[in-house]
């Protein structure tokens, strides 16, 4: 009987899909080469989830100390941004080195450099140390991610503007941080730096923040941030930016066409992200790009014969847990013969402001156009005992329930540890528990999750069937 030849694989990008997939394939006996041009771990570990949430923890400590008088505790607060950054980057380094060590122990060959397709499943690598390496493989997996997008704004490249990557390395607090863009990333940074002691102004072209979320939920979060000193300029289109000495001047136009200026010490650009496909030449391997530059894939993440795209580079929800699930879909198909797809995949997410904004499934505005009767249960955090005891009563809990089946269709939580409460309700949603089951469940007292009882005891709002 002839000896089985191990499959060969090239993985481009060591993010939260590429790294775990490379390790899994190598442990299964494949010959795996992983190409990474910067850091193992991808955006999440190096300039996304890990550093931002670590710094948010420091900012929250400062906020709790400043507001502790409300609980009868007096404290003086001094912020040392350099020490915060050192702690943050130490954690980043530990996570990164741990991931890289795991890959090497699995037998993955790690190449540092820039990858470019030269043909079907053929890759050329411009190595960091000089020279090139030509590779071909049975399978190629693209997990090259995305990067902060720069707006088409005159002067933006001349004023020392920062992206979400560079702002994490500042060692002195901005006197006045201007943030261009009012999305999820923007709001986390706005509260983070406001709590550390900076004056913060958010400039957003749209008339409202986070238009994908229910308006009352966003308004409640906006009120919290304004109470902590964040200034919002909504409906303000950026026209140009220039530096005048130590100051950055951002010219904006309002809905009435009238121009105004906002002046700050630093400018953070947070207007979206761009896929890293511009230098890959993916068309050479048979894959296609959509109009935004993302790689087009089917529900099994296949982009071409033997070519897969995973994580942010394929478009869709740009979350670490989605990238990781992409790796599981491909891993299980290739190693275990299990055909699971992205179709109908549950997509939970959490915005790590304080209070946290977390959601899975439908919200109220989506239920309103669903086309079948639903019930909306809403409970303000002012009615949650644990929130009252801890002094964290901003926000609300909301559940969308199918009227006929009594099953959950979606959950939104704006509140303390909102992501944890949402995750508990996500398990109920995926497990087929009804609103009646949750209303009658026994939860430990006094926990935040105990409020799930109260949520489904509240009088629901009925939405009529529209299309």
Automatic annotation (TrEMBL):
Residues annotated for FAD binding in this entry: 53, 312
Note accompanying the cofactor annotation: Binds 1 FAD per subunit.
Nucleotide-binding in keyword set: yes
Keyword Transport applies: no
Residues that, per the record, bind NAD(+): 181-188, 204, 272
Segments forming domain FAD/NAD(P)-binding: 9-323
Gene3D superfamilies: 3.30.390.30, FAD/NAD(P)-binding domain
Record's keyword terms, sorted: FAD, Flavoprotein, NAD, Nucleotide-binding, Oxidoreductase, Pyruvate
Protein family (similarity comment): Belongs to the class-I pyridine nucleotide-disulfide oxidoreductase family.
Entry protein name: Mercuric reductase
Protein species of origin: Deinococcus metalli
